[in-house]
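Query structure, 393 tokens:
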């Protein structure tokens, strides 16, 4: 990851960033990690995770990650009621503010449910809601999530969305909404075009290999994979990632389906480089209605053609550009894989992909966000400097 050289004026801003996140920092490396590791160039960044209920007495884990981000994890006793849960977290975070001498800060929310915790803290200089997913549509979503989001939208100074579909859904709910769809670390995934080594658990899998990496949950279309794998036993389907919120026994089992489990972000290019086709086999349901899969540009940066179900933020712009084949039924998905195999090493196709991706990167996304943050901070500061009329009375 390169260090952007812009924003010299921001060096003068002494401020912290407090992020409330529903995802574990060390779970899957995705949008929060890409963005917050870059914000750590300019802010002291604290990521407050959801609590773990594994302690006799409440305490905080405070770990400085390799990205220079402070990962804060509350550990609470089991059996707390809702009120005790909130009060315990509030006290722990207040103590953290005192220990780190946090005064001026930007509050960054990935989950509206954290409002209960943040309300006990000193007012933030700026409140940002980075709405990366429609969390209320996910399995096991809290019943209060929609109401909490409505409250967060009232309080937020800036709202970012994880894709254009989500932007269309939120733009009428706030005066300052900006779409920031999934981006890529191109240098990282370019390694897939000339991998240094073949992973041992990949080596014995024959070609053609059709691969997927990501979280395997209610969004994963198991039935589609089962049908395609049964129809094409000579094709090998490689699936990388953790299984959450669904029963692993519900996943299809076949000699040509290979579940390799979780792999680190650093390892992904070596696996991607060994695939002939990449796939996004997402079910069409409420949980996938607004998603913008980060894996789409990552697959393409690795030089691998993609077959996906009809996810709106994949169909537009990627399928429109001829980089992704869209198919929902097994027979069409097979046709898509055949198309992808036919262009796997087509230099003209790869050149057009590289041209399209030239101006897409997490660095660029971060730069645009920083400009908006800088502008909003200056605007709020200038308003605070204007005296109220009654001050002269």
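Result returned for the query:
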């Amino acid at each position: 990851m390169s260090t952007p050289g812009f924003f010299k004026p921001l060096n003068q801003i002494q401020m912290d960033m407090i992020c409330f996140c529903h995802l574990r920092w060390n779970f899957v490396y995705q949008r929060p990690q890409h963005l917050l590791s870059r914000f750590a160039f300019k802010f002291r960044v604290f990521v407050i995770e959801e609590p773990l209920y594994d302690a006799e007495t409440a305490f905080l884990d405070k770990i400085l990650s390799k990205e220079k981000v402070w990962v804060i994890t509350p550990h609470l006793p089991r059996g707390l009621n809702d009120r005790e849960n909130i009060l315990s977290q509030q006290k722990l975070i207040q103590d953290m503010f005192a220990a780190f001498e946090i005064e001026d800060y930007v509050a960054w929310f990935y989950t509206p449910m954290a409002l209960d915790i943040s309300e006990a803290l000193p007012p933030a200089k700026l409140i940002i809601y980075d709405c990366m997913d429609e969390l209320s549509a996910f399995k096991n979503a809290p019943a209060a999530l929609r109401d909490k989001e409505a409250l967060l939208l009232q309080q937020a100074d800036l709202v970012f969305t994880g894709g254009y579909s989500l932007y269309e859904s939120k733009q009428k709910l706030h005066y300052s909404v900006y779409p920031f769809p999934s981006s890529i670390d191109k240098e990282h995934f370019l390694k897939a075009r000339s991998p240094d080594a073949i992973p041992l658990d990949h080596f014995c899998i024959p070609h053609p290999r059709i691969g997927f990496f990501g979280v395997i949950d209610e969004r994963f279309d198991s039935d589609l994979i089962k049908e395609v794998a049964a129809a094409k036993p000579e094709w090998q389907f490689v699936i990388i990632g953790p299984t959450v919120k669904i029963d692993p026994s519900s996943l299809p089992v076949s000699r040509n389906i290979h579940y390799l489990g979780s792999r680190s972000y650093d390892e992904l290019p070596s696996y991607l480089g060994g695939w002939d086709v990449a796939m996004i086999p997402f079910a069409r349901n409420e949980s996938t209605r607004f998603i913008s899969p980060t894996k789409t540009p990552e697959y393409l940066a690795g030089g691998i053609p993609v077959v996906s179900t009809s996810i709106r933020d994949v169909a537009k712009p990627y399928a429109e550009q001829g980089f992704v084949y869209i198919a929902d039924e097994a027979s069409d998905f097979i046709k898509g894989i055949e198309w992808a195999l036919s262009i796997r090493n087509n230099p003209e196709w790869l050149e057009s992909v590289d041209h399209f991706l030239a101006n897409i990167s997490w660095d660029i996304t971060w730069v645009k966000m920083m400009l908006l943050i800088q502008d909003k901070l200056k605007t709020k500061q200038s308003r605070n400097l204007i005296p109220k009329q009654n001050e002269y009375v």
